[in-house]
Amino acid sequence: MLAFLVLVTVALASAHHSGEHFEGEKVFRVHVEDENHIRLLQELASTHEIDFWKPDSASQIKPQSTVDFRVKAEDISAVEDLLEQNELQYEVLISNLRSMLEAQFDSHVRATGHSYVKYNNWETIEAWTQQIASENPDLISRSAIGTTFEGRTMHLLKVGKPGPNKPAIFMDCGFHAREWISPAFCQWFVREAVRTYGHEIHMTEFLDKLDFYVLPVFNIDGYVYTWTKNRMWRKTRSTYAGTKCIGTDPNRNFDAGWCVRGASRNPCDETYCGPAAESEKETKALANFIRNNLSSIKAYLTIHSYSQMMLYPYSYDYKVTENNVELNALAKATVKELATLHGTKYTYGPGATTIYPAAGGSDDWAYDQGIKYSFTFELRDKGRYGFTLPESQIRPTCEEMMLAIKHLANYVLEHMY
To answer: Cα separation of 26 and 62, whole Å?
Structure first.
């Protein structure tokens, strides 16, 4: 028992190590009415270190919207004064980020190893990819598609009954390091596929007729960093000559309207697009894999958080896709299906108009490669916890998302191209 407690204490210490910076920090939600409000928030961002949660940067704020951002403890009174003096309506979503981060680990599962209802660090996830593949050789194979900037191996799981010329659905998780609920879903999906194959009629049919390529964590270096140094890290961990700032936003790094809007050329910004499209090793590895398997990949799904949305192209432009009517109908039906379990409401639509314009995203890129069904999911929640979603919400979040993925898989099977 003592050994177990020591293990738990060590695990919590390492997990909470990244919480120590956040004492007294707050997350605000501001209601933006007009251009004047936008200008005020942009000025605020230029004079204080503000971490935007939604949207991703000050340049993406729109009139008649809400903006969520994190403020360091020492800046809070200045920020509150400015908001009050200018009569901006605001609420405090999180009054002490550190205590919220500690409350994340609220799952009472006493697992020292891998658990589907806890957040797992990268070492645990990596060991799990090997274990689940070796325990289910008839359904899962594991391959390496590349390495990260820091030299970690990007493991891809191929889930499905082996067969010739099978169509496939590609799904990745963990693009932005701090969105922990995202990798939790990729793991959950693989477990459900294995657990229900041969028992549940739909999953059995999907795995017989389709392959699912699942990349459990795309931005591994960033994810490791959120566990060890800074829980709120978003980008990759790449370095470039001429700047001390680290990392690129991988979801601004694809060759789809690269860096035209909703992305920054400043390496210190959270939405830095990188020195060139596909400059990141991770981006290049994913893009190469998809290019090499383009004939079989019929759908591309990328899982993010938060805000409960299902988005489809385009984000880099206000133009609509050729099959816009079909994508809209499919998204509508998918979020309706998702809501049947826990009543969770997702909104849906093209990225640019539904949230904000953002160039260089993987979904737009995949669509432009000819993958007709390309979607970004933003998982729970709507901001009460934001990036600090507690472990107790992993199960319901993943359960409802399974319904969405199954609905999509069924649609893809029925509309093969």
So the answer is: 22
Strands 168-173 and 211-215: parallel
Question: Residue 152 has which token pair?
Answer: 């970690």
pLDDT at 342 over 60: yes
pLDDT in tens, 278-287: 999 999 999 9
192: nearest Cα among 180, 177, 202:
202
Q: So which residues are the catalytic ones?
A: 378
Nearest one of 274, 272, 178, 270 to 229, comparing CA atoms? 178
Q: From residue 145, how far is each of 161, 182, 213, 289, 413 by CA, in Å?
A: 20, 20, 11, 7, 26
- Residue 84 to residue 156: CA distance in whole angstroms: 50
**311 — phi, psi (to 5°)?**
-110, 150
Domains of the chain (ranges, CATH numbers):
2-104 (3.30.70.340), 122-414 (3.40.630.10)
Residue 101 is encoded by which pair of tokens?
């981060």
Residue 5 predicted with pLDDT over 80? no
- Alpha-carbon distance values, 143 to 4, 137, 153, 174, 297 (Å): 34, 13, 10, 18, 17
Q: Which long-range contacts (CB under 8 A, 24 or more apart) does 267-273 make?
A: 267/240, 267/243, 268/243, 269/57, 270/51, 270/52, 270/56, 270/57, 270/234, 270/235, 271/56, 271/57, 271/358, 272/235, 272/245, 272/247, 272/248, 273/248, 273/249, 273/359, 273/360
Nearest alpha-carbon partner for 20 in 270, 247, 228, 235? 228
pTM confidence score: 0.93
Q: What is the DSSP letter of 272?
A: B
The answer to whether residue 6 scores a pLDDT higher than 60 is no
Closest CA to 122 of 219, 209, 42, 199: 219
Q: Are 16 and 102 in contact (CB under 8 A)?
A: yes
CA nearest neighbour of 140 among 82, 216, 57, 252: 216
